[in-house]
Automatic annotation (TrEMBL):
Lineage: Bacteria, Pseudomonadati, Pseudomonadota, Betaproteobacteria, Burkholderiales
Gene Ontology annotations for the cellular component aspect, listed alphabetically: membrane
UniProt keywords, alphabetically: Membrane, Transmembrane, Transmembrane helix
Protein name per the record: RDD family protein
Cell compartment(s), UniProt: Membrane
Spans traversing the lipid bilayer: 12-34, 46-67, 112-131
Organism of this sequence: Zeimonas arvi
Chief location: membrane
Domain RDD: 4-144
């Protein structure tokens, strides 16, 4: 299957962000209601941040593993595969999420602690798609995965791992 072009990838990110707004709003509202978290610094804030990261990890890992796709991925005919063009296992999907999260957090930390210009490093994984011959993002290179454009009528069965 052909690699997803950078424009399709960007549209997928934008569409996924709209869906994630609702998912995170409800999950974080539930956390705040159950714990009476008001946003103040302290251990509860750290727990809130870890909870949000776990929700994101569950969302993406669940939709990337075993050939499943989120609504934006279905709409844009996107699919994440491993290096041998097979559906991802849960471990590889979690690895892809972890690599992407680590790169994003590293860019935020560099921008905060070193120089505001370094926030631009958050764009590096996506800019990598312009130079990689397989159009993989930098976190795809690290995780051994690739985002492909799948024909809308092509069927792919889920695989038990």
């Amino acid at each position: 299957m052909p690699a997803a072009d950078p424009w399709r990838r960007l549209m997928g990110i934008a569409y996924e962000s709209i869906i994630l707004f609702g998912v995170l709003w409800f999950a974080d509202y539930a956390f705040s209601a159950l714990t009476q978290f008001k946003g103040h610094p302290g251990p509860l804030r750290t727990a809130f941040q870890v909870f949000t990261l776990i929700v994101l990890a569950a969302y993406f890992t669940g939709f990337w593993a075993l050939g499943r796709r989120s609504l934006p991925m279905k709409t844009l005919s996107l699919l994440v595969l491993d290096g041998q063009d097979r559906p991802l296992s849960y471990a590889r999907a979690l690895g892809r999420f972890s690599a992407a999260t680590a790169m994003w957090l590293a860019a935020l930390a560099a921008g905060y602690y070193l120089s505001a210009w370094l926030y631009l490093l958050a764009l590096l994984p996506f800019a990598w798609t312009l130079f990689d011959r397989d159009r993989r993002a930098l976190y795809d290179v690290v995780a051994g995965t690739r985002l492909v454009r799948r024909a809308p009528d092509a069927g792919m069965k889920s695989v038990d791992v």
